[in-house]
Design goal:
single chain, 107 residues, alpha+beta, 60s Ribosomal Protein L30, Chain: A, five-stranded mixed beta sheet, 5 strands, 49% helix, Ribosomal_eL8/eL30/eS12/Gad45, Ribosomal protein YlxQ
Length: 107
C-alpha cells in the first residue's frame, strides 16, 4: 500500500477526513476541505462536478487509485470521493503524490 493511502487511514482515525458526495460537497462549500481525492474509476459526471467545485473554491484536487483501494485505506467499502479537513494531513499527502505513479491528475 502506498504511503498516501496509509496517510488517509491516519486521517480517518484522527477524525480529519470525510467521505461521500454530500459531506465532501458541504466541506468544499464551507471551505473546511483542504484537499479532495476522487477515485480514478469514478463516473465522469462525478469527476466533473468535483473538479468544477474544487476549482471554484480553490481547493486542491487529486484523481487517482480506484474506489476499492480508497475504501480499504479508510476502512470502509468502496469510496469514490474523500476530503481532508486538516491542512497538516493535506500537506503530507500532497508531498507523497509526487512519488506516486498511481495518481492521474493533480490540480
Amino acid at each position: 500500500m502506498s504511503k498516501m493511502l496509509s496517510h488517509l487511514g491516519l486521517a480517518v482515525r484522527a477524525g480529519k477526513l470525510v467521505t461521500g458526495d454530500e459531506l465532501v460537497l458541504k466541506g468544499i462549500r464551507s471551505s473546511e476541505a483542504r484537499l479532495v481525492v476522487i477515485a480514478a474509476d469514478a463516473a465522469p459526471n462525478t469527476v466533473k462536478k468535483f473538479r468544477d467545485k474544487c476549482r471554484t473554491y480553490k481547493i486542491p484536487l487529486i484523481i487517482g487509485f480506484d474506489r476499492d483501494r480508497l475504501g480499504s485505506s479508510v476502512g470502509k467499502p468502496e469510496r469514490v470521493v474523500l476530503a481532508l479537513t486538516d491542512q497538516g494531513f493535506a500537506d503530507m499527502i500532497a508531498k507523497e503524490i509526487e512519488n506516486t505513479s498511481e495518481v492521474e491528475y493533480i490540480e
